[in-house]
Amino acid sequence: MIRFVTGNEGKVREARAALDARVEQFEYNYPEIQSDELATIAAHGAREASREVGEPIMVEDSGLFVDALDGFPGPYSAYVEGTLGIERVWRLTEPETDDTAAFRSVIAYCEGSDLADAPTVRDGDPPVAVFEGRVEGRIVAPRGDGGFGYDPIFEYDDRTFAEMEPEEKNEYSHRGRAIDAFAAWYGADR
Ligand code: IMP
Questions:
Q1: Hey, what domains does the chain have and what are their CATH numbers?
Q2: Per-residue pLDDT, 188
Q3: Is residue 152 in contact with ligand 1, taking CB distance under 6 Å?
Q4: Which tens digits make up the pLDDT trace of 98-130?
Q5: Is the CB of 160 under 6 A from ligand 1?
Q6: List 36, 61, 117, 125, catalytic entry
Q7: Per-residue pLDDT averaged across 41-68, rounded?
Q8: Atom of ligand 1 nearest to the CA of 80
């Protein structure tokens, strides 16, 4: 069983679907370090939680990267959502000619021992495997009632993520892709 460190039940449901329910939600308040790299933040969290708990741990960190704003708000997406709000992120982007952006997600997995067979491993003690997913889209005026966070201002293929059913969003989303990459490696033999 993998313990997924998150307060978000929706993320747990997505992971359970991809991993045949071998995931359980785990509330653990680890100190989130500041870094420009999602992978560094997630790997640190997974390592700390695994050391403390002594069981396989998964941590996910995600963010919205607006190209014309040099990747802002990026790793600071949660803070910016809570301070400026998503409408102001759209307004900051509106005067720019380039409205492209990407959602990125990183899954960090640590089981307290060697993970040399994983595609990307962050060395340290214990080592942590990282898996990335991303989706490219455009920043638009808010539309739609579904989803959460920046979904209303992120358009993919003519619809915002907030205008899609959850299953459809999961199919295209950064997190869905990161979870699929992790599930492909984790496989059925563990
Ligand atoms: P966290 O990784 O869950 O802390 O999310 C970081 C920030 O990115 C928060 O502001 C979330 O609202 C936002 N975010 C992450 N994933 C998504 C998504 O799928 N849709 C919209 N916003 C997201």
A1: 2-189 (3.90.950.10)
A2: 55
A3: no
A4: 999 999 999 999 998 888 788 898 888 899 999
A5: no
A6: 61
A7: 94
A8: 10
